[in-house]
Amino acid sequence: MPPLRQPDGRTTNPVIPGFHPDPSVCRVGDDYYLACSSFEYFPGVPLFHSRDLVHWTQIGNVLDRPEQLRLPASMPSSGGIYAPTLRHHDGRFWLIVTNCSEGGGNLIVTATDPAGPWSDPIWAPGVPGIDPDLVWDEDGTCWCTVAGVSQVRLDPSTGQTYGTPHRLWSGGPGAKAPEAPHLYRIGDYWYLLIAEGGTERGHGVSIARGRTPAGPFEPCPANPILTHRGTDHPVQNTGHADLVQGPDGSWWMVLLGVRPGGGTPGWHVLGRETFLAPVTWVDDWPVVGEVALDLPELPWPLSPSPAEEHRDDFEHAELRPSWISVRDRSAEHCTAKERPGWLTLRARGGSLDEADVVFTGRRQQHLSCRARTLVDAAEGSGGLAVRLDERHHYAVEVSGTRVRVVARVGSLRTVVAEQSVPAGPVVLAVTTTEPPSPHGPCTGPDVVSLGVEQPDGTFTELAALDGRYLSTEVAGGFTGRVIGMYAAAGTVHFDWFDYEPLDG
Predict the structure, then answer these.
(1) Which of 130, 197, 220, 359 could form a disulfide linkage to 486, CB 3.0–4.6 angstroms apart?
(2) Which one of 22, 133, 312, 390 is the catalytic residue?
(3) Which of 35, 66, 213 has the alpha carbon at shortest distance from 135?
(4) Domains, the chain, ranges and CATH?
(5) Distance CA 128, CA 164 (A)
(6) Is 500 a catalytic residue?
(7) Which residues are responsible for catalysis (predicted)?
(8) What is the helix (H) or strand (E) element at residue 207, kind and residue range?
(9) Integer CA distances (angstroms), 22 to 25, 116, 334, in order
């Protein structure tokens, strides 16, 4: 799993690249665990493990069964699972999260092993709003704090709340969207860390402290303690943070940020990513260091994980945890068991424009990358797509002996290019690369090239499309690009999928 130590010895941010927003982290002994939002994708809440806060390996997904996560087709993209909080208490892992779909709400799941299985949900109907946080005080009372910012006493084993939610400190006067609260007991104080300013360019992190978890809270005079608003820093939208101690007892912050590219206003295409920043303490207040693309040398040994294999030959019945599908993944429509060594997708919706499309992909994690797959569409039609949502995606699709490139941008859908191919399986390919020079104020963030690969490995480009239209600044919402395979009609088989980073 990137990031990897670079050939010159550098270790880089983001520590979990690609669409991995709203990080929540906890430390258990020498191990660190981190969870992120997943929105309309199933399985939900990717979970990572690390020994050094830098190298993270996905060990599973918290909500990986239909009994835990139901996302109806009527739910719009960027709905679904918002902002988990992950904590370890009394020998168990606890995760609280919001399902922002019809019939949803705040739910709690637990596990003794973070790799799973996690319990069925415990619903907490008395917890209002989104971004719920859990903390236990000295006498074992559990407090749940949510965006807004308000708080209520909670029994996390039953979901029962006690009393009515009461307002806490909500950031700077007039600040937009006070959210992502996390409470900590550090030294003599309880600290309330929040995000404010909205998760766009105005995003920031602020903090207050008090003598009890219920306040009253005194704001830090240096608030916001982290923001990149109004700067030319390459990492923007910094916020939604969580604090953790490193192996040597020093303090660190995980947070989300984006890497805009291109001209004005700048477009980020990978979604909100997880970054790491150092924290020091001055007069009992945290001071956040730079969110650097090159991390400082850490005062403890690094523990690099084995690099994730670029290629998946679908030799195992269970898919890797990095594979995600839109809203659900039924064995009837997606299986690696029907045809050994192949992934079989059986169409349900008519195209990527439909909410119930059968799509299985992985998050794009590099600004430049190449994805390829061998497709057998003798019994249907389907292909390889770069997806942001139902209204923003590019795809190269095969049906019979015809391959075409389809682009959907907002209300416009068009076949950009079309070509004949020999009968039989075909290799489809997508690359994302930096736009050609010279760059100007209207230059997009990248170029998405779609085409077919010949038997000798030669890539035949059918279309090269501006990447800005698959960006959050154009499409809106909270997700990032996902590259993967889909079925538009009938049954489509995929022999392998290969994802190769091209930017280090």
Answers:
(1) 359
(2) 22
(3) 213
(4) 24-224 (2.115.10.20), 311-501 (2.60.120.200)
(5) 10
(6) no
(7) 22 (proton acceptor), 179 (proton donor)
(8) strand 204-210
(9) 10, 21, 28
78-103 per-position pLDDT tens digit: 999 999 999 999 999 999 999 999 88
pLDDT value for 8? 44
CB distance 102 to 72 below 8 Å:
yes
Direct distance between the N- and C-terminal alpha carbons of the chain, in angstroms, rounded to an integer: 13
* Tokens representing residue 493 in the block: 């088989």
Give me the pLDDT at residue 504, please: 54
Q: What is the DSSP letter of 475?
A: H
What pLDDT sits at residue 1? 42
**Rounded to an integer, what is the distance from CA 279 to the centroid of its chain?**
24
Q: How many CA atoms lie within 13 A of 190 on its CB side?
A: 19
**pLDDT lower than 70: segments of the chain:** 1-10, 504
Question: Distance between CA atoms of 288 and 290, rounded to whole angstroms?
Answer: 7
Which tokens is 37 given? Answer: 């939002």
> Would the pTM of this model clear 0.90, i.e. be above it?
yes
188 is catalytic: no
Q: Is 395:381 a contact under the CB 8 Å cutoff? A: no
Point out the catalytic residue in the list 40, 179, 196, 273. Answer: 179
452: part of which helix (H) or strand (E)?
A: strand 447-453
CB atoms within 10 A of CB 308: 16
